[in-house]
Write a structure and sequence with these properties.
It contains 2 helices and 17 strands. It has about 270 residues and is mainly beta. A hairpin with a 2-residue loop joins β12 and β13. The longest helix has 23 residues.
């Protein structure tokens, strides 16, 4: 995900381009690999000029900028798909967060509609499936705009397991799991007693081993949740992981005596680079 200047009437830079690098390239000090743009969020670039482009972010043979960009934009495609063009609750002035790779040729791009000062629950959002040519292949399905809204708490993160072609999302209402075809395979509601503690966690990543990594928002601890092969069994493994978290947290409190959930360790060494 890369940013762009001169979009619509916004000031500053905003995330706007989904791009991929070529196999074998790596980011390093003083080195920016060429990124191939595959999708644009917002194509309203009348305010852009050549100075607003990045030489390493390219579409075709030229840097992305002005009219040289993937088309149609995700905003346009989603407005048509959801029939919300012209609606205050549509995708005009929408934003996106970090894409997740479901494979070498399929990605999930979280896109959410314009936010307002009042409640945004019920506002449009989509976890868009985009292939490596920028073609919109659909959305992660099974979510209700109100009952599953990520606007409560602004939890829009989606993580993916490209080795097993699965995607996951956690917000204040539940933990969700999909297969690569966008079909919802598991929904674990935080309204159910065993899973209420999930509202205190943020979803960080999915490891190569297929584990979900969650971070407690206040206690500064990480929780790893193994994901079973059969996603119908996910609720059981999450429940066990939450029970184990409470046990391990108690043991850590005895060992470290945290103050305001800060964990001092006088035996730790600091390595200077």
């Amino acid at each position: 995900m890369t940013s762009g200047y001169g979009l619509s009437n916004w000031a500053g830079a905003h995330p706007n381009i989904v791009a991929i690098s070529e196999p074998g390239t790596a980011l390093g000090p003083g080195r920016k690999p060429v990124l191939r743009a595959i999708a644009t969020l917002d194509a309203r670039t009348d305010g852009q000029n050549e100075a607003d482009s990045y030489a390493h972010v390219r579409y075709g043979d030229e840097p992305v900028g002005c009219d040289n960009r993937p088309s149609p934009s995700l905003t346009e495609a989603l407005s048509e798909l959801t029939r919300t063009s012209g609606s205050l609750h549509g995708y005009l002035d929408s934003r996106m967060t970090r894409p997740a790779a479901l494979g070498d040729d399929l990605f999930v791009v979280p896109v959410f509609g314009k936010t307002y000062r009042s409640t945004n629950r019920g506002q449009e959002f989509s976890f868009v499936l985009v292939d490596d040519r920028g073609v919109l292949k659909g959305r992660l399905g099974g979510l209700h705009l109100c009952e599953d809204s990520p606007f409560t708490g602004f939890d829009f993160t989606v993580v993916a397991d490209p080795y097993r072609a699965r995607a996951f999302h956690l917000n204040r209402y539940g933990l969700y799991a999909w297969s690569a075809d966008g079909v919802l395979r598991a929904r674990i509601s935080t309204a159910e007693k065993p899973f209420k503690p999930l509202v205190h966690f943020a979803l960080l990543e999915c490891t190569p081993a297929g584990e979900l990594v969650l971070a407690h928002r206040k206690q500064h601890l990480l929780l790893r949740v193994p994901v079973p092969q059969d996603l119908n069994d996910l609720a059981g493994t999450v429940e066990e992981a939450l029970k184990g978290y409470r046990r391990e947290r108690t043991a850590l409190k005895r060992q470290y005596a945290p103050v305001n959930w800060l964990w001092p360790d006088s035996a730790a060494t600091l390595n200077h680079l």
